[in-house]
Amino acid sequence: MESDWNTEYVMDKLKEDSSNHYCFDCNSLDSDWTSVNNGIFLCLNCAGLHRGLGVHISFVRSVKIDVWQEKQLKLMHYGGNSSLKDFLSNYALPYKNIEIYKTKALDYYREMLKAKAEGFEFDKEPPSPESGQEYVPEEPKGITDNIKLNADGLNWQQILEKFWVDAKEAGKNFGDKIKDLTFEDVKGKTVEVFHDLKEKIEKYDYKSKFEEIKAKSGEVILSIKESTKQTMENPREIIMEKYESSKTVVVETFEKGKAKVIETYESSKVKIKENYNHSVERLSGSELVLKAKGMLGK
């Protein structure tokens, strides 16, 4: 088994037990979710209720969606729905009440599973049927941690109502704590606070702090000035560079155009001269022919 700790293999082996095809809490034919540290399969709805218990009581994982670690797979391997049902047969606990996971019996079971998964011997005695039904005491962590969800679930309105009731109860507890305070108690505490504050003020080195702030401010101002100077100078350099580059291009273009015009003019002049000479020659030839024929006078 040590070389086969992969999700598909472990889940397939667990599903060979028909009880793992059902949700442990509500017995619905949906078991794609788990409470890892309790080693049981759950449906989507019950998994949502388990999330409200806190990960130390119920650590919820999806069989199909989540990536599993080896230690988590071992908890499921040593657990399973049948295993927890056999264990709970010793205790008169209602299966469909989400609060059972806060009892000493389930706390012992989770501890036992953890020891097996980590390879440790577990020789701790299980709680008695009576003490197993007791809740494990927990330190209050805040108002929202006191909201309890029943096995059938709560809609949002019920959750908000429960939150408001717990908030009022917390306010009442706070009121009970301060109602016995006397004026002298409050006065003494106030004097103590101001005395501590006065000592801190007197020990504070304002001069050094001022000089430190002044020095840092000077550095910031110089940095800003330098950045501003560079910002102002760089565009000017870029503009001048582009101007010189453009000017060179214009001059080169002008010179090329001028050369082309001169070349065209010279070429045209030669052609015109050649055409003129050719025409003169032709006229001279015609005149000689006519004289020979006596058609022109002397």
Written overview of the protein:
There is one protein chain. The N and C termini lie far apart (138 Å). 60% of the residues lie in helices and 3% in strands. Helix 3 packs across helix 5 (104-117). Strands 2-1-3 form a three-stranded antiparallel beta sheet. By secondary structure, it is mainly α.
Task: Provide a concise account of the structure shown.
This protein has eight helices and three strands, in the order H-E-E-H-E-H-H-H-H-H-H. The protein is mostly helical and 298 residues long.
Sum up the structure in keywords.
three-stranded antiparallel beta sheet; single chain; 3% strand; 298 residues; 8 helices; elongated; Annexin V, domain 1; mainly alpha
CATH superfamily of the domain at 7-146: Arf GTPase activating protein
Please, what is the average pLDDT? 75
Strand order of the largest sheet: 2-1-3
Order of helices and strands: HEEHEHHHHHH
Number of DSSP E strands? 3
Q: Span from first to last CA?
A: 138 Å
Structural class by helix and strand composition = mainly alpha
CATH architecture of the domain at 7-146: Orthogonal Bundle
Judging from the principal axes of the Cα atoms, what is the shape?
Answer: elongated
Q: Write down the Rg.
A: 49 Å
User: What proportion strand?
Assistant: under 5%
Determine and state the CATH class of the domain at 7-146. Mainly Alpha
What summary fits the major beta sheet? 3 strands, antiparallel
**Low-confidence segments:** 141-155
CATH topology of the domain at 7-146: Annexin V, domain 1
Number of helices: 8
Helix content: 55-70%
